[in-house]
Amino acid sequence: ALDWSRRVSDSARQGALSGTRLDQSSASSKGVPPAAGACFPSTRKMTLNVEEEVKQLVEEIKRLGAKGPDGKTAVKFGVLFADDRCANIFEALVGTLRAGKKRKVLHFDGEMLLQGAHDHVDVVLLLEDSL
User: Fold this and answer.
1) What's the pLDDT band for 22 if we cut at 50, 70, 90?
2) CB neighbours (10 Å) of residue 65?
3) Can you tell me the distance from the alpha carbon of 16 to that of 94, in angstroms, rounded to the nearest whole number?
4) CA distance 123 to 111
């Protein structure tokens, strides 16, 4: 048993010692790190997923909302939150709403909306056709 554990630890140690080093050629000569997308390709994928979710949210607001006197579509947060289809589509509705607000696609009062306390708050589409 001792022989086996020594071999396992030796091969593990050798594997750790032969690990690959960071590629220094990806950094510029001034020591500036590469762009975030180069280091973390999943970051780019996550951004695309957020964009898609915001687009889906716009479609759901169009479906559930009504045009106001200013011609912009609005829906109450409580209606969005209680809708079964929205509950199935959006894993984190509040996060998607915040992403849409950050991208100036939609507007609502406050930083974050909470179920119950903010059911009466209007979520207004600022950009309907440009997505």
Assistant:
1) very low
2) 19
3) 43
4) 12
- If phi > 0 it is left, if psi is from -120 to 50 it is alpha, else beta; for residue 104 that is left
Which residue's structure tokens are 């998607």? 96
- Tokens representing 68 are 């106001």
Residue the block writes with tokens 């957020």: 50
Q: In the predicted model, is pLDDT for residue 24 greater than 50?
A: no
pLDDT digits (tens, 9 = 90+) for 47-103: 558 889 999 999 999 999 999 999 999 999 999 999 999 999 888 999 999 999 999
Residues 94/77, Cβ–Cβ less than 8 Å: no
Element spanning 67, H or E: strand 66-67
Per DSSP, what are the bridge partners of residue 73? 67
Q: Which residue has the tokens 């593990």?
A: 12
pTM over 0.85: no
